[in-house]
Amino acid sequence: MADQDNLGFSPEALKERYRIEREKRLRPDGNAQFHDLSGEFAHFDADPYAEPGFTRDPITRETETLIVGGGFGGMFAGARLHQAGIDDYLIVEKAGDFGGTWYWNRYPGAACDVEAYIYMPMLEELGVMPTERYAKGPEIFAHCQRIGHHFDLYSHALFQTRITSAIWDDKSNRWSIETDRGDKIAARFLIIAGGMLHKAKLPNLPGLNSFEGHAFHTGRWDYEYTGGTPLTALDKLGDKRVAVIGTGATSIQVVPPVGRAAKHLYVFQRTPSSVSRRDNRPTDPAWWNSLKPGWQAERIANFGAIVSGVKTEEDMIQDGWTWAYSDEAQDYANDPVGAFERRQIADYGKMEAVRNRCDEIVEDKATAEALKPWYNLHCKRPCFHDEYLQTFNRPNVTLVDTGGKGVERITPKGVVVDGKEYEVDCIIFASGYELTTEYTGRMGFNPVGRGGVSLKDAWSEGAETLFGLHARGFPNMMMYSTVQGGFSVNVPQVLIEQSAHTAHVIKHALENDVEVVEPTEQAQNDWLQVILSHVMARATIMAECTPGAYNNEGAADIKMAKNAAFMGGTPAFIEILKDWREKGDLAGLELHKGKAAAEA
Ligand code: NDP
């Protein structure tokens, strides 16, 4: 390894420190340390934004395609069908509007953490200029609504409606779908675009429900209680002591506005995030007007390549993300040992800069020390903010570091750490979302395929899919999911591709009188080998990471490996799907002709 004198730090000492910090955080209960928002915690899941008392008559009808979810994924699915000239589809969404993430996450300070110019989809098609480089939640939500109107998605939507069952019927070759509003819908195709992070979780803490103050999750912000809006001061918190539990990407954005408003804010930290400079700024109209047609796709592809460790001639974005990934492109094929060492040394250097930033900004030495993250940069989602660390200089803000152990318990009056009770009026859970738990649990329903076999049972030993999109035994069903599917830190990039793919398959089926599409076993096995080869390449890196949502809370096993996302990088995933579509033969899918063709 490179020596300490040239680097200004000791790689060996850092490796050991990372190991010690990781071990402090290991715990046997893994995902069981969390509670979902059901049963006695169902009130945490209630929709504070939808019109209360909404009713409608149940519908009974047939449709060509039923799309589950009205976030970016479901919206793109509908938009692409519309563009392909297919307008017989329905979108079923549990929320009261489109938007997904941006419908639910209305917490103060919410903003896209990837540049808006590449995060906000279809800017060129719709002629929209984001007002700033990292647009705020309300602007992105309004953009979702704009997409909904532009593609006439609203006339296809069933809002405030949840799927309760989806059963494949071999006789009619249709999915038979029921909802919590009594709808009965027969659909030829079923697209599940349920989102990556929509099932919120709470730490399963003793006494959680005994708290006598007010409590909510960041995904269901209670402005009734806090006052203010996503963009204005929380004017009812001036006499309130508030706890924020969690210090992930959401908390980084929530803490500054709550710190400004609360009488006192306690931030309960288990593992610090890496927080680098954000450098947000208004969009320069002159720059915007200078962009050439096709710029957005080009910029998205450039970012996707850089954050996938692909060497590019240019870094068009030049922000914290591309800085974070600037040393990922290494010659792993010809010099794997050297490549991993160079990458690791660069990572240590970057994390040293992140830690030094704590000392530069945070005045209290002990607080600065506690805010320093001791793990490799990509073990958790890197964060970027210009007010988060500064908030700890406020006299009314206290960091309660739990030394990797987490909050101990909740009492009627507050939060306990290390035997000490912090009395608060309100607890805000910034405790995140399920990411690696059972897919069907996260989606909220369990499709039943051929022979009455449910997806949960079919995947009990791990997923089997083609491209993460199709699953054998579940004909005409397609999923936009990270389970063996693509992944990008710029989430919409992959959804754009998956929606192009599903529109292609459905169009092909309709034009060629194909009644049923279903992946072959061979195609699924081949895809699994691709998934596993990439997982193995990353296994050591993830195994050394501090536990968290990215590595199944530190509990890696073969099932998790089979359920992993495609780790070969976003450009490679997109290329695979594009090549497949261009060949046009729908390789790996069994195609069963419809009645008309059979009779001809
Ligand atoms: P995370 O899962 O990233 O963070 C949850 C936090 O809760 C962690 O700090 C975790 O600690 C902490 N926690 C859990 N249990 C306890 C406990 N018992 N005591 C104390 N702390 C506890 O969720 P987020 O909502 O922050 O982010 C989820 C994802 O949402 C991000 O990874 C990102 O993909 C996305 N996001 C995107 C944004 C955007 O602008 N595009 C903005 C915000 C989020 P520990 O780390 O130790 O597990």
UniProtKB/TrEMBL annotation:
Question: Which Pfam families does the record associate with it?
Answer: Pyr_redox_3
Keyword match NADP: yes
User: Cross-referenced InterPro entries, in alphabetical order?
Assistant: FAD-binding_Monooxygenases, FAD/NAD-bd_sf
Q: Does the keyword Oxidoreductase apply?
A: yes
A single MF term (Gene Ontology): monooxygenase activity
Provide the alphabetized UniProt keywords: FAD, Flavoprotein, Monooxygenase, NADP, Oxidoreductase
Question: Domain of life, per the record?
Answer: Bacteria
What cofactor(s) does the depicted protein rely on?
A: FAD
Q: Which PANTHER family match?
A: BLR3857 PROTEIN, L-ORNITHINE N(5)-MONOOXYGENASE-RELATED
> Could you say which protein family the record assigns here?
Belongs to the FAD-binding monooxygenase family.
Q: What is this protein called?
A: NAD(P)/FAD-dependent oxidoreductase
The organism is Sphingomonas crocodyli
Q: Output the lineage of the source organism.
A: Bacteria, Pseudomonadati, Pseudomonadota, Alphaproteobacteria, Sphingomonadales
